[in-house]
Amino acid sequence: MAKNLAPGTLARALPASLAFDAYRLAEFARHANPAAAAALARGTRRFVRHLPETLARRRAAQAARVRSDDDLLRLGVVADVPTAAREWRRLSRVAPAR
Prior knowledge:
The chain has one domain (about 5-95). The protein is built from five helices and no strands. By secondary structure, the chain is mainly alpha-helical. It has helices spanning about 5-30, 35-50, 50-65, 70-75, 80-95. It is flat, with a radius of gyration of 15 Å.
């Protein structure tokens, strides 16, 4: 996500993504699932550790873009935050965080 979205979309999506991670962490804690919480923490640390490389790849991806984020949203390639949240809740009922 970080390398593919336009700057404005990324600025709107990043806080929602962080809030979503906090929500998932709380769900893992509520269901006493330390392995899942640890995996989420490892993934976040890896993202931060590799941020310089991701930003370099982002510059290349943004320079080569031929479709806007609005085009991708219309095509269903990316979802807006409310749609993604609804899908997470729907899938959580199928496979709980336990």
